[in-house]
Design a protein that fits this description.
The complex is a heterodimer of chains A (about 260) and B (about 280).
Chain A: E1 2-10, E2 16-25, E3 30-34, H1 41-48, E4 56-61, E5 64-65, H2 71-78, E6 81-85, H3 96-105, H4 114-124, H5 140-152, E7 158-162, H6 170-185, E8 189-193, H7 197-202, E9 207-212, E10 215-219
Parallel strand pairs in A: 3-8, 3-9, 6-7, 7-8
Antiparallel strand pairs in A: 1-2, 1-4, 4-5, 9-10
Chain B: H1 2-13, H2 15-52, E1 54-59, H3 65-76, E2 81-87, H4 89-100, E3 115-120, H5 127-138, E4 143-147, H6 150-192, H7 194-202, H8 207-243, H9 252-280
Helix pairs in contact in B: 1-8, 2-6, 2-8, 2-9, 6-8, 6-9, 8-9
Classes of the chains: A alpha/beta (about 260), B alpha+beta (about 280).
Bound molecules: adenosine-5'-triphosphate (ATP) and magnesium ion (MG).
Amino acid sequence: MIRLHDVAKEYTRTRVALSHVTCQIKRGEFVFLIGPSGSGKTTILRLLYMEEKPTHGDVWVNGVHSASAKRKEISQLRRKLGIVFQDFRLLEDRTAEQNVAFALEVTGASAATIPQRVTRVLTQVGLASKATQMPRQLSGGEQQRVAIARALVNDPYFLLADEPTGNLDERATRGVFQLLRDINASGTSVIMATHDLEMVRRADDARTIELNHGRVVFDSDETPPPETRYTPLLGQPAIGGPSEGNWPAPPRGKR
Amino acid sequence: MLAVREAFNASRRAPLLSALGVITIAFSLFAFGLFALVAVNIRQALRGVEERVEVRAFVSEGTPAEAIVAAMGDIRSFPEVARVDYVDQEGALARARRDLGEFNDVFEEAMLPASLDIHLRAGLGNPGNVRDVAERVKSYQFVDDVRYGEEWVEKLYQLRTLAAGTGLGLGLAFAAVSIIIIGATIRVSVLARAREISIMRLVGATDGFVRAPFLIDGFIKGIVGGLLALLMTWAAYRAIDTRFLDLVFFDPRFVAIGILCGALIGVLGSATSVWSHLRRI
Ligand SMILES: Nc1ncnc2c1ncn2[C@@H]1O[C@H](COP(=O)(O)OP(=O)(O)OP(=O)(O)O)[C@@H](O)[C@H]1O
Ligand SMILES: [Mg+2]
């Protein structure tokens, strides 16, 4: 269970990444985080795995509270969160299976169970046959599958994915996305930041949270949607991002 | 063990810097070792001297034997005193002849006073005690004069304190330098592995787990540096021992402490740089 209550994040006094964000995400949900560049998607995910602490408000993830979490608790929490990035973040000098095993070794899993658990997740992501390849011998889609396998190997409650398909071509994107859907179907929550609205439209049973200028402007789970929706909040488009006008409307009326 | 394997990997990544770290530890302990060697040998010399240190109280001629015997009983009960011998006039003459060897005929006709030779207990023969005992013995009526090797005993003690102090001071200064250098070598391997560390943290490694290989790395460097210092100190000892002086070397306990100091320097150096890195991520 994830809960954000009136969360604000300011990196510097003038750089407001998030403000007044309140929402809940339950076990088993599939959630898209969308919004223009700089709207705060990555920041929300960083708050969830407690890489950052909110400047204001509270974040609870699996009972760990942002205000009181110690470094050790954060480490323990992350073992129950799978984290996936656009740039895969694999160790280049280790094979696919070593990369996955790394996540187990680091958490002090018993050495005897490691090979078996690694094989299981690599099979789950469809890479059992490439277990001994180095990352540079794998395609982008395959590397992302290794990263997903690494995220899954500790049986996480939540899978946090920051533009996991951002570096992939269309075919690989579809494969990785389907994998995330399957993972969700077997009970793990998936929270995924993306720019790929095509994908969001196809998954019409998923929940969509849209951010703009650090505020939640749409949440398909909330009825009625916040009235702040589509009113330009600060009167300026996000730095480097598309302006309000050419940002396509997210799918409406889900669930 | 994973952490040990990682530790060796880290050293292989920056071999030159690692060697530099080990060598500075070795030299800091070597500097300390040399002065400690001097101090230990002065102490050894002092111990030999202490055994010989005696307070000699010259007895007036014609003192009744009972008075002397009573005084000897008194003096024996002083806590610092190990033994009291009475040397009569003939004994004094014989000793003087023996000491002077070929010039012994000088004493043909001489009269030497009888004396009480007071030996102090081992370890209690320091200048303060010696002076103290001498003062007390001087208070006997029949004692004409008291002699003891006050000046050179005190000098030897001062020398020992100086050697020990200099060794400690230099050793500490070098140790500080080697902590900094070890810190730098470990920082290089920390930075080389920054990506790996950030991934470790992402998948839930605790700080302790991340730190362990670096601390082991520093520990190993410290031990190796300590052993090198031991080797150099031993070589110096051998060189002097065979050619000039009869020296003693450290006892094994002191050697073990020295090597552990090396390990401590290594661990401290790496701990500081890993901690500062972890605090930033
Ligand atoms: N480490 C940081 N230091 C300072 N400002 C930051 C930092 N990270 C993000 N920001 C700012 O916070 C705001 C939100 O950034 P965030 O990365 O969350 O956006 P995003 O929605 O993930 O964007 P994108 O789609 O481009 O990845 C932006 O204005 C960004 O410039
Ligand atoms: Mg982002």
